[in-house]
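Standup, Tuesday
Yesterday: got the pipeline producing structure tokens again.
Today: sanity-check two examples.
Blockers: none.

Example 1:
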Amino acid sequence: MSRNESLLADWRARALALEEAVGRAVIGQERVIRLIDVAVFARGHVLLEGDVGVGKTTLLRAFARGIGGAFERIEGTVDMMPSDLVYYTYVGEDGRPRVDPGPLLRHGADLSVFFFNEINRARPQVQSLLLRTMAERSVSAFNRQYRFPHLIVFADRNRVEKEETFELASAARDRFLFELQIETPTQRSIQTALVFDPLYHDADTLVERVPEALLSHLELNQVAGAIQEEVRASETLHHYALELWRATREPAAFGIEVDGVDMERLVLAGASPRGMSMLLRAARVAAWLDGRDFLTPEDLRAVFGEAIGHRVFFTPVYEMRRSQIAPRLMRQVLDRVAAP
């Protein structure tokens, strides 16, 4: 067994242990937990969308505890300024003005998980600063560069209230590896537990059920690189991925149809090269978590909708119906493009 193979076998056990621990704290969200685990090892950022009170913050706190490193959270508001991410000012006890590091800078390079709640309430200037932080894992402040080599950003978009909100631009959405929908569990036994079991009424207790630092956030970049090196993809798999990509740009050429949609006028721009490379990156992690060192079509299909759906941009007449059209389009792409 090579050094990388030994390393990845050990880390796969840790990754699955983290999934299991988070699954005990946040029940009924197995697929979302798996996809966040994939994002952690693909080193990609995640955009969350869901109703109020479905456990998004508890879920992220649980993952942050298991990953280790520092966790920060900020609430988006319409009057927020970019500087609010970097520093805050106040008057000290001596009556003099003070400047302290804000949530991005408070922990320095140890910042591991940053959660921006209700990002669409923040103005585009604030979103822009966050995007640079996501893309470069760095920010400029106080005449110096601060770096966050271990950072993963999670952002939540409020889908209920639309007043005083600022929708994310296409370029902003493309920076996220996944866009995940977190729904209220439909299974009756889980609903009963969430409503009637006092254990699930105390988020702090639930988070504490996850062992601290199951993973070492300082080593995640190394492990992520090893996964990408070790998980192979055949030429046939390459062809399949490229056909999936073409279908996002030219759905009508594959006979793809969505009820009530003119397919010739639907797509303004298909998935970007960056989006497809991130799809393959996530698929390799999915294969690794399933115990394989080679990709199969099922690995791409397992992450395709969440990795690509938000990266296909529609013409304005259809963009307002994105939440209904995009999932159906992604299903049609997978149904129509022949898998090897």
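Example 2:
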Amino acid sequence: MAERQFQHEGVTLNVEDRGSGPPIVLLHGFPLDHRMWNAQIDALSTRRRMVAPDLRGFGKSTLTEADVDLGVPMERYASDVVAALDELEIFEPVVVVGFSMGGYAAWQVALRWPERVRGLVPCDTRAVGDTDEARAGRLKMAEAAMQAGNSSPAQAMLAKLLAPETHEERPDIVALTSAMIERQSAEAVAAAQRGMARREDVTGRLREITCPTLCIVGVEDAISPPAEMHQIATLLAENNAAEVRIVEIESAGHMTPLENPAAVTEAIADFARECYCI
């Protein structure tokens, strides 16, 4: 692993930077860190430069007291990603892959810094904002995490993160996901949940994204179902001269990069090859 750390806006940001060649940026979901992408990094770093940050507060990245109290807006995660690219002296447009919460940040990168994005891969994510009920649930988990002093309240998500088949037949993946959640801090959980609770509904802005786009979704995803991802793809295709397509990943729920890593890796690799014309 080639982890690099740098200072930005009063926090330390940790980034996995491995391999050489056309860069692919991988943004992890909640409540995880960049290690959820280990299979993709291992497979693709032989011919691509793989950049996988720990989003603010997660993994080895830190956050501020204000981040915890107010929540981290998705655009702040996005600006951290752009800062990481600048720190790594990657100024060419890149392929950005955003999983779940990482997808919320990826939307903001594509909308606010379109010149930095060669191709976009929304992976098991959503474009809509929270309902009142979902927002209340996020704020409740934030408070519970801070009271517990750890990420244990987020373990309740495990049931929906993985497909029923994964829970029944792949205890290694269940244990890996649970351990990754356990490693996150209460502050990271609270900051992210409070930020997601007030995130922008970007549904009406998807037409502004004009780069090639690949939507990835697990066939059994209960959080961002295939039907919803197809709707996102349809909206992205409007007013977009570039290609927009969708790949459904078999034998996977929400955690496609862990549940069927080979299929996700292949989809990303094929898309990046087309984006970079190599």
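Quick observation on example 2: The mean pLDDT is 97. Residues 206 and 236 are 5 Å apart (CA to CA).
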